[in-house]
Design brief:
The structure is a single chain. This protein has one domain: Aminopeptidase (3-Layer(aba) Sandwich), CATH 3.40.630.30. Helix content is 25%, strand content 36%. It contains four helices and seven strands. The radius of gyration is 14 Å and the shape is globular.
């Protein structure tokens, strides 16, 4: 897997990205549009052999304060896999590539956190499988209770 920060050269791949169910995750084109006005949000594309298969945003801004007051933290949000490529292991491969990507691009970061809707069992299982730990904390998000997961970086 190759993780790359979004730039305008990937506009067509984002336009072609298919996310059939966006109840739990924001459409990449919307997340990118919002990130353009926010210097603390970094849209990240995950490629498998040149094909865009997954997307997420790393956020170092104030939104992470909903999750923790710790320093040296990035919030992972808007994680999705293109609907045409689900069930092929790309989501876990992307998350398993996250640690090295962050070490190389954000060396001061010690932990990645995220919120996952407590009803989104497949996502909860995915995050646990990829090393995220349930912190035992939660907060009330826009569509219900969000469990707070953390991935300490080694």
């Amino acid at each position: 897997m190759e993780l790359i920060r979004y730039s305008k050269q990937y506009e067509q791949q984002i336009a072609d990205y298919v996310l059939k169910d966006d109840y739990y995750s924001k459409q990449p084109k919307i997340a990118i549009k919002q990130a353009k006005h926010d210097r603390t949000s970094f849209p990240i594309l995950s490629f498998n052999n040149g094909t865009l298969v997954s997307f997420f945003v790393l956020d170092s801004g104030l939104e992470k304060d909903n999750y923790t007051n710790q320093k040296n933290i990035l919030l992972l949000k808007s994680f999705s896999t293109d609907s045409r490529y689900t069930g092929k292991g790309f989501a876990s491969k992307t998350l398993n590539s996250l640690s090295n990507f962050i070490k190389n691009n954000f060396p001061e970061i010690k932990t990645v956190i995220l919120g996952v809707n407590q009803k989104n069992i497949p996502a909860i299982n995915l995050y646990k499988k990829c090393g995220f730990k349930d912190t035992g904390q939660k907060y009330l998000g826009e569509i219900g209770w969000q469990l707070i997961f953390a991935l300490p970086l080694k």
